[in-house]
Specification:
Radius of gyration: 23 Å
Largest sheet: 7 strands, antiparallel
Strand order of the largest sheet: 1-2-3-4-5-6-9
Order of helices and strands: HHEEEHEEEHHEEEHHHHHH
Shape: globular
Strand content: 15-25%
Distance between the termini: 88 Å
Helix content: 40-55%
CATH superfamily: Coproporphyrinogen III oxidase, aerobic
Structural class: alpha+beta
CATH topology: oxygen-dependent coproporphyrinogen oxidase
CATH class: Alpha Beta
Number of helices: 11
CATH architecture: 3-Layer(aba) Sandwich
């Protein structure tokens, strides 16, 4: 007859008791996400990707097009994966990419740890939906949106987590009413979360989407936020998640009315060439400054998904200088400067 090893039994029970106590503490602390919280965010993001694809396909059909999103499911060797949905060569939308990813990272890249040295050596998971829409008609702006959750974990320690995201607009032939509408949507979705949220995240967007080597804004801005959690805003996980939902829904509220008003506006070949020239600025920004692009490249990410934001066509012209008084001149002279769009 074997004699039970009471020492090992006690150790095992101590481990069990510790794990139970930790789980109870996490459940009682709304600032610490648990596995169920992370699963809820993932489910929301998967549904968000599908809803945005459906809305953009409907816009394509309204313009007489038949192009649809083609899904591409992929897996990451280090763990996780995602689905990239691409619409190409449409009548209304020249190219759009709507990407969902949920990846696991065992060795965090410098682009992450430089800003957050406290996560060095931790394993992490990052999930989000990101999209870029390049319309064919230069009277419809290019638009971008991204919402994400990052969680860095270490054995025996509380997770370090934050939410980030936002959306921004890059017009070529802007209309003042569209700019005001875009920022009104931004303001209204932020209002339930506090009076300072819109001005804070609008300013952050203006500062973030700035081409320093050109001393020029990428577009008219919108919202940008990062590192949003209990420590930075006093928001528990649930409130941060609610804000992610508000931003996600706000993107469609902002862009679809602009499509409706502008996608059938006639345009000339000269305007099309100017659109391609301005798309070059978009490429410059994404390759030089964009955090998501840098994180993807430094974490051995999936190149096709990382660079899907690139337009199908773009051009560069040596020392192009539009004539004063033209719409092309007005773009950089008036619109591509940080402004209080709701108090002009």
């Amino acid at each position: 007859m074997s004699i039970p090893d009471t020492a090992n039994t006690n150790i095992d029970q101590n481990v069990i008791d510790k794990n139970v106590a930790q789980a109870q503490a996490d459940a009682a602390n709304p600032a610490i996400p648990n596995d169920n919280d992370i699963a809820r965010v993932r489910a929301f993001l998967v549904d968000l990707q599908a809803r945005i694809c459906q809305a953009l396909e409907a816009q394509e059909r309204k313009g007489g097009g038949t192009a649809t999103f083609v899904p591409d499911d992929w897996e990451r060797p280090e763990g996780g994966g995602g689905r990239s949905c691409i619409l190409a060569d449409g009548e209304v939308i020249e190219k759009a990419g709507v990407m969902f990813s949920h990846i696991h990272v065992h060795n965090l890249p410098a682009s992450a740890t430089a800003r957050h040295p406290n996560i060095a050596g931790r394993r992490a998971q990052a999930m989000g939906v990101s999209l870029v829409v390049h319309p064919k008609n230069p009277n419809v702006p290019t638009s971008h949106a991204n919402v994400r959750l990052f969680v860095a974990e270490a054995e025996g320690e509380d997770p370090i987590w934050w939410f980030g995201g936002g959306f921004d607009l890059t017009p070529f032939y802007p209309v003042l009413a569209d700019c005001v509408h875009w920022h009104q949507v931004c303001h209204d979705l932020c209002a339930p979360f506090g009076d300072t949220v819109y001005p804070d995240f609008k300013q952050w967007c203006d500062e973030y989407f700035h081409l320093r080597h050109r001393d020029e804004q990428r577009g008219i801005g919108g919202l940008f936020y990062d590192d949003v959690n209990f420590e930075s805003r006093g928001w528990d996980f649930e409130r941060c998640f609610d804000f992610m939902k508000a931003v996600s829904n706000g993107y469609l509220d902002g862009i679809l009315p602009i499509f409706e008003r502008r996608q059938d506006t006639p345009f000339t070949d000269e305007q099309r060439q100017f659109q391609l020239y301005r798309r070059g600025r978009y490429v410059e920004y994404n390759l030089v400054y964009d955090r998501g692009t840098l994180f993807g490249l430094q974490s051995n990410g999936r190149i096709e998904s990382i660079l899907v934001s690139m337009p199908p066509l773009a051009s560069w012209h040596y020392r192009f200088e539009p004539s004063p008084g033209t719409a092309e001149f007005e773009l950089t002279d008036y619109y591509l400067k940080p402004r209080d769009w709701l108090n002009l």
